[in-house]
Amino acid sequence: MKKYGYIVAEGPHDVEFVSKILSPFRFKTIQYIDDLDPFFRELIPRVFPIPPQGDILKRIPIPLFIENETHSIAIHSANGDSRLIDTIEENNKLLDKDKITGVGILLDSDQVLDPQIRYSNIKKRLEIKQFHPADSAGLITDGPPKLGVYMLPDHQSQGTLEDLLLECAAIVYPNLLTSAQTHIKNAEDDGALKEPDLEDFRKPSGRKKAVVGSIASVLRPGKAVQVSLQRDRWLRDETLDIPRVKAFQNFLVNLFEIQ
């Protein structure tokens, strides 16, 4: 009998990260609705839905579906951490909970709050919605369904997905990483750039995102970072053995009972 998993992440980069982490287990991406397991059909809108928060410029958040011979998994972008809990609650109502092996939440550690405080806040919000996560991030409840919350990069450090991607780049794209870091440093020192130009760059993870974006722009000019994550060598072979990357892969394996 096939096992089903559902995980909500903050954004499209995280969705692609989850997909690539599981690629060694022979998962393939489902492109056409006719090929989608009937279990997940309820997650596909039958009529044009009201956009999130009424914002007609936002993409309608249909999950990415991946499948192998034993598992079917939906990876859902919440379009921001403020929507993580609501997204999991809304779609939990649509799915047969008795058939789901594991439910997960993936988010970044906060750049201001201590990661433990950040998790405590998430845990309280989940409990209000009648979910009962483990006492610490990275741990998985017995279920059914199993429930786990993972905080990138490692539950202990303040940071984001980009911290892990930069570790990967140091192995597979070392020269590109060095040149990207130089480019970003030169941009930071460019006196012609005004504060409005650097609004996003000045954010806590702005520099790291800029470096990752610079590498991706060389590998896939004109395309989004998630396209590079999907098609390039960020998360293949030796990079999957990086301890913090491997730890997340092990979390998914345990959450969804992947053999």
Provide structural commentary.
- The protein is an alpha/beta fold and 259 residues long.
- Helix content is 37%, strand content 14%.
- The protein contains eight helices and six strands.
- It has helices spanning 12-21, 84-92, 115-128, 161-172, 174-188, 206-219, 225-231, 243-256, and strands at residues 3-9, 28-29, 64-67, 71-77, 100-108, 146-152.
- It has a six-stranded mixed β-sheet with strand order 2-3-4-1-5-6, sandwiched between helices.
- Strand 3 and strand 4 form a beta hairpin.
- Helix 4 (161-172) packs across helix 5 (174-188) and helix 4 (161-172) crosses helix 6.
- The longest helix is centred in the last third of the chain and has 15 residues, at 174-188.
- The radius of gyration is 19 Å and the shape is globular.
- 36% of the residues are buried.
Tally of structural domains: 2
**What string, H for helix and E for strand, traces the elements in order?**
EHEEEHEHEHHHHH
- Strand fraction: 5-15%
Major sheet strand order? 2-3-4-1-5-6
